[in-house]
Each structure stands twice: as C-alpha cells, then as structure tokens.
Amino acid sequence: xxxxxxxxxxxxxxxxxxxxxxxxxxxxxxxxxxxxxxxxxxxxxxxxxxxxxxxxxxxxxxxxxxxxxxxxxxxxxxxxxxxxxxxxxxxxxxxxxxxxxxxxxxxxxxxxxxxxxxxxxxxxxxxxxxxxxxxxxxxxxxxxxxxxxxxxxxxxxxxxxxxxxxxxxxxxxxxxxxxxxxxxxxxxxxxxxxxxxxxxxxxxxxxxxxxxxxxxxxxxxxxxxxxxxxxxxxxxxxxxxxxxxxxxxxxx
Length: 252
Known about the structure:
InterPro entries: DUF1989. It comes from Mycolicibacter hiberniae. Residues 44-193 form the DUF1989 domain. It holds the Pfam family DUF1989. Helix content is 19%, strand content 29%. The radius of gyration is 19 Å and the shape is globular. The protein has one domain (41-220, 231-250). By secondary structure, the protein is α+β, with helices and mostly antiparallel strands. The protein starts with 8 loop residues before the first helix and ends with a helix.
C-alpha cells in the first residue's frame, strides 16, 4: 500500500512526484528514413492510453505496432473547421473498397481527402467495427481536450487488428495482428486534429498489451507524388485542393 499521505500539500506533492516512476516516458527513436530536422512529433502511447495532435498539411504520420500488441483507433477532424471530420462510411463507399491499403483515402463528410495511406506493412485493419467501450471513452477524452463532445465522436478507423467479411455468410471474421514491427504511414492533405487511442478491438479476446509508437514529420513535397489514379480519388483530391486554395486568401 502507498505510504505517502495526501492530506496535505507537501504529502500530495510527494505522492504525485512518486508516480513518475510508473509513467511511460519512452520517446520513439527517429526512423532511419526520416530526417531528424523534419520531425514534428514522436510519442509512445501505452496500452489503454490516448494522444491528440494538430498536424499540418503535408505531414507524414507513421503509426507502429512495436511489439505486436497494440490496436490504434483514429479520428480525424479538419483543424480549422472541426465540424468537417472523418467519414468512415464514405471512406469505404467512395473508393469501392472496405479494406484499407496503400492508396486508400481517409475521406471527410465533405468529400475531401484528410489523409491517404501511403505505406502499410500490416494489412490488418478495420473500418467496420470501431473500438469497444474503453476505446470510445479514450477518444471522447481526446475530443473534450479540443472543445468537442460526445456528439463529435464518430465511427473510427482501427489499425493493426484486422476484420474481413465472409463472402458466403456475411459474418465478420477477426484476422488479428500481423505481429511486431508493423507500421502504417498516412500523408495529411489538410491540417487535421488527430485523436489516437491504443485500446481493444471488440472482436479481440486479448486487450492491447504493448505501446503504439506515433511519429510525424514534414513531407509536403510528397503530396504531388501520389500514384492513385482512380477517378473517385482524383475527384476527392480536386475538392481538397480547391478548398485549400480558397482558404489561402484567408491565411494571407
């Protein structure tokens, strides 16, 4: 049992400082393929934790399942207009694809691309189920920090825990994790607020047990190099660039 008393200011301060030894303070190492001078964010989210960050247009975001026991649940909001946010239904419907992979856009409810998947060594993701109750609570805590509320916690994207639909029965099949070291990179098209929770998938019997590493760096030049030529994607990119150009006058 904790012997430190908290019924005085000195005792409460000593108790709070003693908790530091239990906190997760690890900072992810800069990947070999990233210029340290371009790095804008590096954080390790423990199992049962969450993080939020406003990311600039042209940021490249990497999420890493370091030890194979993480599950990332993501929400995206347009930073300067948070009523525009990730729409998971359109993210599946518009590109005619329910399974995330390289080239897949994460679309807003206004038909714009908030982010594109540009690298993926996992292949085990889910757009159908969302998180269980703990994950939703963590996403809500992140939303509250930015002036949002429970009405703004929409369906989320889940990474590193896969789900497939059985073509015969239509039943959901849980495909689990790829294993340690899997990573997903997203390229950000518009300034966004990201909320990320490392929490259980509702079909997974084992809750997340290891950290989720998150890094971001400046990579704006890559926005001109995206290879997806599908007409639906190109139309969404056009909508995105038009909105960004129109807002440029307000920023100048």
